[in-house]
């Protein structure tokens, strides 16, 4: 059903950027690495349950058998913590997470929904995801979730210490589905996976047909990964590029390739592209007002039409793939093709949060998630106001 | 009192052309720099006709209205010009600082990185980025820790008999390593999703985020330090003979050396604050200049400034025009500078090492 | 005029290298410092030139001392004239560059030492003798009434040595006061009116004729040294005849230790 956006990500490596890339890769991969290849149930099932226990197969191809559902999980990949909490609808089985996951919980709404998550240990590894084996062993976890595509150096020390490790990959909507199934299986809550994935699939189908119904050349939308000190935008191969196309927009930076889809460009290049809409991601502190006030950007169509928007931040950042991605698609669709009607997105957030977190966000919380304040001066944003 | 009759013959023949001719290389290089600046202002990813570039500059400088559009005006005046001027200042500053350091340390392989000031300034800037402080603190941090590196070097080499050169170089290596470790620590504790990419990009070296505010911030220390160095140009010749010779000729080397070191630190701190660490310029440019005009710092220092400015403008123009994606400047200066330097060293090694 | 009175020097936390050294170098005279290696000749001439500060005693001079170091390449290939002009650093303002007058003075100095024709050569490409002459010209260009030279003839061939000695003699005739260290007693015999002998049992100063005797030189170097008299251009001169020791090693060392106990 989504063949037109199903493309294998090319394995491009920019030779001059190797060092930078290695440091950036966490951020870059998260910022949107590969394509949106969500094909719902068509993916191979990563786990099966049998009477002798729970068998899961991680993304390295390694099979792990649990005697009983896991109750103590440590996560190192940054998006894994919030996804595990969403699948579990609880933080009680999460006993350790990466420090960057923890700060996202603290700063976002997840800490409000699940106060217990704030008390979870978060010194399990460094920024390069090298595990702190002793502190992880001390947590006596049933399983440790770790990156599976970054070499064995960050996994072997834990397996040598007798820990059970699941190695994961990330970057596409497909991976989100795989993780969701994997987590649901090991927690023995398979129905959660089906609920979450079918919700994502339903909305993907809806957005796809909506996008297809639109004129072939929608507004040009440029996603800024960073804009303050250096300018980095989403080029081809980026996850961001895929949802810009999904809603019927065009990415002016589509002909620029970077090692991770995110690529540094010159201000002049942005002026030459002259995008209709600018998205400021959650990996930069800049807000629309900063762009409106900068004399360099005065003549951009997006500035003149006041179509500069800060990407929302919910249970997790909406820019990279995650359990809240359908909300990002819907938000971007409403931004790119404002219908003038209100509340559709807000009610969808309420519906999805009910499903994901079993939580009813207040109007004030919805305003915070949608960054109503930051985007107040931008065109067509009143459509998201509370009714 | 010791004067004999004027040796007329020696006087006539003994007026070498170089005394009168020192203006020629400086003027030549200045003309080249102006030309390169104009070309750099005229090229970019956003097409602006050359005539419109001139009109934009003229309208801002002299109030003459032209037919350039507003967006062309913004491209030339707010995007290209600050960037070109910043590259000019940083490249020129690093060039002259490298030349002055090589004279002071009497070692043609010394560069601003050697005495540890670059590392100190990088740490100051990285710390400001880590703490999420504004660009003013970025500059201030680079200054403070660049000068702190110098102070540590001073304490390390403090000696009543004057610091021997070897101690200064070793002290620079020690300070540099120490601050490099602190930079590494900064990147280690930085949030990998927000501050780390900014720190890494800044450390790689770029003038991409140039604004007139940054130009101003860079201009004060860089031009200030460069003016002092140019004023002392002949004294630096004497200093480069070594402490014993300089003392014997009646020059107190220690205070002069510290004036030169503080001036170069100011320049390097100013450059690092606005553009991160851009390597190789301070090492390669003085060499190129010396091969052309000889070691006389009366000519070498201004030529190093002009040549460094030209070089970095060219490199930065390539960085922003060759591909739609931005190529980090520090990568380019090393990629172009290191092989070029290798070739020049091979070709001129007799000239360089016989005179060492 | 250069005058040392009771000068003593030692490096921090080391023994005295010398103490109580007093002598005077009036204009138009040469004083030579002689002695075996390691007795402090270079240290003494550096003290006299103001490059080292003695811990005790006083040094007086009627103008800056022009110091001529042993020739060395230097890091940068300056022109010979550029090198000589640097002797004018006292006359050039802090932020200024040498004036035409400074360049004329430098060319004068080069002419006086007979190397005006080398003005546009690069210093490192010159021969050792030419480099030494450039450094002497530099000291002269500084208009110092006193020259202090550290082994001005070391490393030079016989002809260059003779050239340097003749030049120094000419400069002294013009009224310069010259202090130099040397390993060649011959050079002291030729040039010096006074000598400073730095031997194993202290420093002695006095007239060359009194101290540069066979006994004095033999004691100084711990070996047999003879001088022979000869006549040249109507002047009585003396020259060194070295007694080469061809005896077996055991006897030689006993002779050596008898006169030079260590």
Topology:
The complex is a heterotrimer of chains A (387), B (356) and C (262).
Chain A: H1 18-32, E1 47-50, E2 53-57, E3 63-66, E4 73-75, H2 78-88, E5 94-97, H3 99-107, H4 110-113, H5 133-138, E6 143-147, H6 156-160, E7 165-168, H7 173-186, H8 190-213, E8 221-226, E9 232-234, H9 239-246, E10 262-264, H10 267-273, E11 277-280, H11 288-293, H12 301-304, E12 308-310, H13 325-336, H14 344-357, H15 363-369
Parallel strand pairs in A: 4-5, 4-6, 6-7, 8-11, 11-12
Antiparallel strand pairs in A: 1-2, 2-3, 8-9, 9-10
Chain B: H1 8-13, H2 17-21, H3 23-42, H4 50-62, H5 70-104, H6 117-130, H7 135-156, H8 165-189, H9 195-204, H10 212-231, H11 233-239, H12 243-248, H13 253-275, H14 281-293, H15 297-321, H16 329-354
Helix pairs in contact in B: 3-5, 3-15, 4-5, 5-10, 5-13, 5-14, 5-15, 6-7, 6-8, 6-9, 6-13, 7-8, 7-13, 10-13, 11-15, 14-15, 14-16
Chain C: E1 2-9, E2 18-25, E3 30-34, H1 41-49, E4 56-61, E5 65-68, H2 80-85, H3 100-112, H4 128-141, E6 146-150, H5 158-173, E7 177-181, H6 185-191, E8 194-199, E9 202-207, H7 208-211, H8 214-221, E10 225-232, E11 235-242, H9 249-259
Parallel strand pairs in C: 3-7, 3-8, 5-6, 6-7
Antiparallel strand pairs in C: 1-2, 1-4, 8-9, 10-11
Helix pairs in contact in C: 3-4
């Amino acid at each position: 059903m989504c063949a037109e956006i199903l493309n294998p990500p090319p394995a491009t490596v920019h030779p001059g950027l190797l060092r930078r890339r290695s440091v950036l890769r966490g951020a870059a991969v998260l910022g949107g690495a590969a394509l949106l290849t969500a094909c719902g149930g068509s993916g191979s099932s990563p786990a099966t349950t049998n009477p002798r226990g729970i068998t899961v197969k991680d993304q390295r191809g390694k099979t792990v058998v649990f005697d009983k559902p896991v109750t103590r999980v440590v996560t190192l990949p940054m998006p894994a913590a919030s996804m595990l909490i969403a699948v579990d609808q609880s933080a009680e089985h999460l006993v350790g997470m990466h420090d960057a996951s923890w700060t996202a919980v603290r700063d976002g709404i997840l800490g409000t929904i699940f106060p217990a998550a704030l008390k979870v240990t978060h010194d399990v590894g460094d920024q390069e995801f090298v595990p702190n084996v002793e502190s992880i062993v001390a947590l006596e976890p049933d399983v440790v979730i770790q990156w599976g595509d970054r070499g064995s150096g960050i996994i072997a020390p834990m397996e040598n210490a007798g820990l059970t490790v699941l190695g994961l990959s990330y970057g596409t909507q497909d991976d989100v589905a795989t993780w969701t199934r994997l987590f649901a299986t090991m927690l023995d809550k398979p129905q959660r996976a089906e609920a979450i994935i079918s919700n994502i699939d339903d909305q993907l189908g809806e957005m796809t047909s909506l996008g297809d119904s639109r004129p072939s050349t929608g507004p040009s939308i440029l996603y800024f990964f960073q804009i303050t000190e250096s300018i980095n935008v989403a080029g081809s191969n980026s996850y961001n590029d895929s949802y810009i196309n999904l809603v019927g927009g065009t990415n002016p930076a589509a002909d620029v390739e970077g090692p991770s889809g995110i690529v540094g460009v010159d201000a002049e290049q942005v002026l030459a592209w002259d995008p209709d809409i600018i998205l400021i991601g959650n990996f930069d502190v800049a807000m629309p007002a900063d762009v409106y006030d900068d004399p360099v950007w005065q003549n951009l169509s997006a500035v003149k039409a006041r179509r500069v928007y800060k990407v929302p931040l919910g249970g997790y950042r909406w820019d990279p793939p995650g359990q809240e991605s359908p909300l990002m698609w819907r938000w971007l669709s409403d931004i790119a093709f404002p219908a003038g009607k209100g509340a559709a997105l807000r009610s969808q957030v309420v519906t999805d949060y009910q499903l994901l977190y079993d939580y009813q966000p207040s109007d004030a919380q919805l305003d915070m998630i949608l960054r109503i304040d930051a985007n107040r001066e931008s065109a067509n944003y009143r459509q998201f106001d509370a009714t | 009192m010791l004067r004999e009759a004027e040796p007329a013959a020696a006087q006539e023949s003994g007026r070498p052309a170089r005394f009168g001719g020192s203006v020629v290389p400086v003027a030549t290089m200045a003309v080249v720099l102006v030309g390169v600046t104009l070309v750099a202002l005229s090229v970019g990813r956003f097409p602006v006709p050359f005539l419109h570039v001139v009109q934009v500059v003229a309208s801002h400088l002299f109030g003459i209205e032209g037919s350039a559009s507003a967006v062309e005006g913004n491209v030339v005046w707010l995007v290209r010009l600050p960037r070109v001027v910043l590259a000019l200042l940083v490249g020129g500053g690093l060039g002259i600082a490298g030349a002055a350091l090589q004279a002071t340390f009497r070692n043609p392989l010394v560069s601003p990185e050697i005495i540890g000031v670059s590392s100190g300034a990088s740490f100051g800037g990285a710390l400001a980025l880590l703490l999420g402080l504004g660009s003013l603190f970025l500059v201030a941090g680079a200054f403070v820790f660049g000068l702190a590196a110098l102070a540590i070097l001073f304490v390390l080499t403090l000696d009543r008999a004057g610091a021997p050169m070897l101690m200064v170089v070793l002290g620079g290596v020690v300070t540099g390593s120490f601050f490099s470790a602190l930079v590494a620590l900064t990147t280690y504790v930085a949030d990998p999703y927000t501050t780390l990419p900014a720190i890494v990009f800044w450390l790689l070296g770029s003038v991409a985020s140039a604004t007139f505010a940054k130009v101003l911030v860079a201009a004060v220390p860089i031009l200030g330090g460069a003016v002092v160095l140019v004023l002392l140009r002949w004294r630096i010749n004497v200093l480069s003979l070594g402490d014993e010779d300089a003392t014997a000729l009646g020059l107190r080397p220690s205070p002069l050396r510290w004036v030169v070191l503080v001036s170069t630190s100011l320049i390097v701190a100013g450059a690092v604050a606005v553009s991160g660490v851009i390597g190789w310029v301070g090492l390669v440019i003085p060499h190129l200049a010396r091969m052309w005009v000889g070691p006389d710092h009366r000519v070498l220092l201004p030529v190093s400034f002009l040549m460094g400015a030209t070089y970095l403008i060219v490199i930065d123009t390539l960085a922003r025009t060759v591909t739609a994606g931005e190529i980090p400047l520090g990568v380019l200066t090393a990629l172009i500078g290191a092989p070029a330097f290798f070739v020049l060293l091979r070709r001129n090694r007799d000239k360089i090492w016989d005179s060492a | 005029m250069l005058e040392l009175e009771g000068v003593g020097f030692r490096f921090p936390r080391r023994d005295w290298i010398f103490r109580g050294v007093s002598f005077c170098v009036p204009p138009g005279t040469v004083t030579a410092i002689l002695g075996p290696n390691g007795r402090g000749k270079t240290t003494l001439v550096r003290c006299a030139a103001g490059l080292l500060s003695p811990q005790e005693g006083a040094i007086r001079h009627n103008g800056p001392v022009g110091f001529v170091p042993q020739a060395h390449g230097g890091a940068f290939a300056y022109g010979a004239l550029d090198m000589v002009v640097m002797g004018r650093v006292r006359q050039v303002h802090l932020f200024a560059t040498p004036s035409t007058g400074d360049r004329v003075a430098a060319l004068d100095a080069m002419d006086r030492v007979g190397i005006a024709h080398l003005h546009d050569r690069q210093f490192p490409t010159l021969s050792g003798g030419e480099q030494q002459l450039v450094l002497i010209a530099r000291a002269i260009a500084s208009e110092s009434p006193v020259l202090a030279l550290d082994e001005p003839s070391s490393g030079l061939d016989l002809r260059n040595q003779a050239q340097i000695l003749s030049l120094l003699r000419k400069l002294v005739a013009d009224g310069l006061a010259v202090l130099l260290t040397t390993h060649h007693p011959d050079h002291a015999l030729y040039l010096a009116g006074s000598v400073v002998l730095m031997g194993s049992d202290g420093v002695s100063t006095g007239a060359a004729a009194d101290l540069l005797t066979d006994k004095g030189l033999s004691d100084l170097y711990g070996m047999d040294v003879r001088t022979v008299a000869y006549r040249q251009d109507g002047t009585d001169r003396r020259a060194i005849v070295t007694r080469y020791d061809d005896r077996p090693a055991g006897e030689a060392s006993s002779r050596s230790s008898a006169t030079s106990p260590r």
